[in-house]
Specification:
The complex is a heterodimer. Chain A is α/β, with parallel strands linked by helices. Chain A is built from seven helices and eleven strands. In chain A, strands 3, 6, 7, 8, 9, 10 and 11 form a seven-stranded mixed β-sheet that branches. A four-stranded antiparallel β-sheet of chain A has the order 2-1-4-5, with helices on one face. In chain A, strand 4 (about 60-65) and strand 5 (about 65-70) form a beta hairpin. The longest helix of chain A has 16 residues, at about 175-190. By secondary structure, chain B is α+β, with helices and mostly antiparallel strands. Classes of the chains: A alpha/beta, B alpha+beta. The structure holds adenosine-5'-triphosphate and magnesium ion. Adenosine-5'-triphosphate binds near residues 14, 38, 43, 44 and 46 of chain A.
Amino acid sequence: MANIVQFENVGLRYGTGPETLSDISFTLGSGAFYFLTGASGAGKTSLLKLLYLAQRPSRGIIRLFGEDAVTMPRGRLPGFRRRIGVVFQDFRLVPHLSAWDNIALPLRVAGMPEEDLEQPVREMLAWVGLGERAGAKPATLSGGEQQRVAIARAVIGRPEILVADEPTGNVDPDMADRLIHLFDSLNRLGTTVVVATHDFQLLARVPGAQMMRLDKGRLLDPTGALRYPPPPRGES
Amino acid sequence: MIAFGTRGGETRRGGADRRVLDEAGTLRAMTWVMAIMLFLTLLAAAAGLGTRQAATALERQLAGRMTVQVVEGSPAKRDTIAAQMVAALKALPQVRRVMPVDRAELTRLLAPWLGAAGADADLPMPAMIDVDLIADADPAAVVAAVRRIDAASRVDRHASWMSPVSGLMATVTWLAFGLVALMLSATAAVVVLAARAGLETHRATIEIMHMLGSTDVQVARLFQRRIARDAALGAIGGGVLAMGVLALVAARVAAVGSDLLGSATLAPADWTILLLLPVAFVLLATLAARIAVLAALRKTL
Ligand SMILES: Nc1ncnc2c1ncn2[C@@H]1O[C@H](COP(=O)(O)OP(=O)(O)OP(=O)(O)O)[C@@H](O)[C@H]1O
Ligand SMILES: [Mg+2]
């Protein structure tokens, strides 16, 4: 399995504060499924930001799709970002756009003609169970519904890497199951998935997924991801 | 299905692009600023162009006109020289028309200053001959001809009397064009400020667009379209108002019936310039917005 992401001794410091992330080294295999766990404040979001190119590291090497992402000129970033779907922890929906328009954004950014948008967007809405709320603005959606819009927006462009930061934090266990199932199907189609979560229940839902544990800005397993033990039979 | 009811139809693309940025006050205000700026710019430009027309007309009229004064104490000798002068001037190819000023007419003109004494035939009054030259004739040749007959005679060129007026008109013209240039740069500055304020207002949205892989140019285009539309609205408003005012002023000028004012009308080329100004305004606004937004985005990751 080829490596799609490679971190080497990466450190991240916000401003002049202490290092939020230190000596982060790992590789992500193309097509694999990863969970990123760790206590609140451990640096999960920070690590994902480096991964989806919202932040440059203070030190170290990051290779993305085989290219140096640290010294990459600004002009090349958009092309790379389009290959990465992101579910932000705080959703980041555009507040004055409807659910439909929010989900259509990545396709529009990629230049898809308007007449081709209808079908994929409608399918995506149905997938996340929001077929009836297409015209709703984010403010009129519940937290869980907003989260599903955010997920639909992240996956509609069939990204090569899907990065999801606490994607099930606001939904009930049934919906969490469905969403993880969605990620799993996407993974089966070849997308590399990275999900940050507190919820160890989720880990059991994806057999074969690997786990990265973060603690106070450091990876607990210096070699990178661990294979999570297979789920016990007859779980609750 | 009801949710989809509002969509569909060909007009969606432009609309969707525009909607990515919601309506913000800074850009609405810009429509008004644009309207006022363009209104003032058009008035200044019209004043400049009109004055230039008047100055050209005045120059054309005066350049070919002169008066010869035969200053000779003896009335008999004076009249002989004057007659010679008229004959010689008529023979010159540069001269279109020679008109000796009637003595009685001269007396009438001088009456307010000299009273009845002006009628005294012994009063040493110069003989005056008005001369009209053909277009673009060299006045020096005429002056030389006059000097050959009588070195003491004076030649007054009307253009030189009017030169302070011409100078004033030239100054007014350049002042007006200077104002137009100032207005255009102020407009660019306003647009840059509005674009920066807009960037601040829409920062969250722009960040999202960036994370979804939008290029700077794509983001700039959103602002460009908005500013172009607002500027166009302002340009139409300001333009219509300015044209109305100009039509009113033109009517008043015609009513005055003064030659000098009447010549301050706009030529078709001038109207073309006035009509192109709003277009230039909108283009300038769009360009300024694009440059401002791209410069600001370059500082982000
Ligand atoms: N933009 C920032 N500027 C300064 N400090 C930051 C910034 N973002 C995060 N931090 C700090 O970095 C540390 C790690 O934050 P991060 O958001 O990565 O944690 P997390 O593991 O995602 O936590 P959570 O589970 O609560 O989401 C925290 O101490 C936080 O205060
Ligand atoms: Mg976080």
